[in-house]
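Reminder to self: keep the SMILES exactly as supplied, no canonicalising. Ligand is magnesium ion.
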Amino acid sequence: MQSTQHHISIYPRGMKMRVTLTLVMVALFYFFSLHKTESDFIEFFSNLDVVFMKLLSMFPPNWDYIPHAIGPLIETIQIAIVATTFSVIICIPLSLLSANTIVKNQYVYYFFRNLLNLMRTIPDILLATLFVSLFGVGILPGILALTVFSLGILAKLLSETIETIDPRQLEAIQSTGGNLLQVIWYGVVPQVLPQFISYGLYVFELNVRASLVLGFVGAGGIGSIIDTQLNFLQYKNVMAILILLLAAVIFIETVSNFLRRRVV
Amino acid sequence: MITFKDVSLVYPNGTQGLKHVNVTIDEGEFVVIVGLSGAGKSTFIRSINRMVTPTYGELYVDGENVIQLQGKELRKLRTKVGMIFQNYNLVNRSSVMKNTISGRLGHTGTLRSILNLYSKKDRALAYENLKRVNIEEYVYQRADQLSGGQQQRVSIARVLTQEPKIILADEPVASLDPPTSHQVMKYLKKINQEDHITTIVNLHFIDMAMEYADRIIGMRDGEIVFDGPASEVTEKTFEEIYNRPIREHDLRGSE
Amino acid sequence: MENNGSLPPKPERLKQKRIRNLVIAVILLVIYIWAFSGVIRAMDWSMLQKLDENIRQVLPKLFSPDLTEWRKVFDKILETIFIAYAGTLIAAILAVPFGFWAAKNMVKSPVWNTMGKWFLILDRTFPELILAIIFVISVGPGAFAGVLTIGLTAFGMLGKLYAEVIESIDMKVVEAMEANGANKIQILFYGIMPQVLPEFLSFALYRFEIDIRASTILGLVGAGGIGTLILITAQNRNWPQLGFIIISIVVVVIAIDYISGKLRKRLV
Ligand SMILES: Nc1ncnc2c1ncn2[C@@H]1O[C@H](COP(=O)(O)OP(=O)(O)O)[C@@H](O)[C@H]1O
Ligand SMILES: [Mg+2]
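Structure tokens returned for the bound complex:
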């Protein structure tokens, strides 16, 4: 290199170049994205008063509408509970099969690992649509969609926990002549139970949030009345439902957080 | 009776764990296996309850060749052979009682054991064995709240509850301090004498081996290089087994 | 079971624990009966009769994807990616000051610091769809509402993660610079940023992966992306096209997860 250093930088030259180039690309793609999504922040901020007016069209919320929303909200929570239960049950064999402390066969292990990874790539809306297309409109496709959606996450978390257990404790149970089920029940379960409960609660929270999506595609729950009220431009009703829903989410997450702190 | 007939073991990565081992251990013997780390002591005793599988030869436990055993038969063998580990290997989050009674797993149906429906007799046996190692006061404590020596005593009680014919102990005192080490060895010796359970212990402390063993087997590089009554063993014997002079850390020291 | 002749009685503590577990079990049972009976009542069992027919009709069509309208699908998938990208980047930048605000070692006043933490918690409690609805009403339907939604939901999580990164930095470097008389800006850019930037970027990429998935639902309420097209395609019972959409999304998500995962590995 011929260029003599005029001033000494604390970073190596090559790195500086790379960082600058990366930043430029990140910024360019950002402006391209803004352009493509028609995101005009200048207009947004200069018309803030209009935005605000429209926002105000949702207020005050129509509290009289709340009684109509209670039924669907209950249905949403019930769907989330049932789906969480199913995925908690199904995830047990699935996560045992995708933990290398239990499964020694490489092919089996990688098959189930990849299956879990694939399950987690499918967004909840696609699952819901898929199940509605197979089962028709109703609550059942919603339950199935949430079950599959949370199964991928839950089994992944649990299998990672099972991979960190102390294999020596299993060895001891094995050495007493215990069979596979006994080894799992006496050696694995005590080691992972607290985390498992915590993950179950966490996934329940996720399911409550995700169950909002279901109603929009005809899979049951509170989403469907939001959809209707939106289509009728009843924004004050919409706001009332949203506030009710938010209150329910906050309540459930507070209780769940409290329980999670107790078990771990 | 345990008989090794020309037993060899090669690990999947090519390491030779045992090389043409021939030895017979009679019922009720208290045998100590000595040798440097990596000599093949663990491989030797773990072959007996088939935690590892020899790749050549015949290995008779109680008159039955165990090398081919699988599934139910293998579990039956393990029920007859109890094992004690260097790190106690208790299930940390379970109670002392639950750990002890897990010795009954091989004798208990799957559903019964999962629902915790053990017979009165089994429970009494587990408690009796905790008493034998003087740890009964902790019966409802969680295992990880106990000290190392206490945990090793629980693991002895677990093995006793198994009602085994043979007890294998893989470096049972390596993680303990000298006084506790002697205490644990004394319990093992006492059980061997009272119940006539064949006991095989891996140790690398030569003074402890000489103090407790009836018979000492020396191993080096997967081979048996010495086999004789403890009374015939001197420091010179150990220097031959270890192939180097005795050092201070080869001794546990007295209580 | 426990009044065995030779076994000592269980200590009080264990009995209480037993009672507690029993109470928990009863509560759980009640909740389950409530949830399952509700669900069973709401279930439309007649749909199971049509299931067989549905599966024979729908599944083969889903598996023979129709590519004729691929331009439309691609446009919408690209829009989904743009929304996720713009939203994540806005969140990643916005989260920096909030991360500092919520980091214990950067804020002297504990009250002020706790307020920062709470603000981020508050942001995280909002489900995406709720914010999307509010934005669609305020700025009108379209991808812009989606960008705002992603920006605002992602920033709560990123702010929290950033704060944790900042709390774990080596404060000795900062103290040494203070001792050398560096001013606050100099400390920020030469003392703190080099320590936290790789992890900030790594978390932003991770959040981008989440936001790709999140952006697919925005269309349900008119906030842009592929969601609307999914909805319409399903309503028109255009199963071959739905099959194509599903495959495209799965491929895009896997590809982005893979690239982002590779980048994150190199960063940290
Ligand atoms: N699972 C295994 N895989 C490969 N090699 C092993 C394994 N276990 C032990 N070995 C090797 O076998 C030899 C004997 O080991 P081991 O029986 O554990 O000796 P010791 O118990 O006397 O220390 C050593 O060289 C060790 O590295
Ligand atoms: Mg060893």
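Points to follow up:
Residues 3-56 of chain A form one domain.
The radius of gyration of chain A is 25 Å.
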